[in-house]
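pinned: reference chain
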Amino acid sequence: MNTAIEDDSTLTDRYQTTVPASVRRALNLKRRDRLHYTVRSNGEVVLSRADDEPSQDPVVASFLAFLERDLQAHPENIRPATTSAFAQQARRLCCLPQDAQLGYRQFHRTWSA
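pinned: its structure tokens
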């Protein structure tokens, strides 16, 4: 038998609310957990625990799937990242905005350590 849990909470001036303890227990929510809201056409709102993984950008997901297929189909094209390859990319950085250069340098430090 399903037991419905009903509870109320109040919106603050900043449109924030506290999830009632009964709902937190029912959904097994912990601090910093993500919530998902579904607003149905009849005005009903369904609150549920959000997936652990935020939804992916479909373009990025498609690109990663393409890379995976290509790497599996052509493993002979996989080469190690070498210092000279990083140096070549660093020479190309002169034309990139500063934030892109910073991201590359942080990535390079991680891989060359």
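why pinned: The radius of gyration is 24 Å. The first strand starts at residue 35 and ends at 39.
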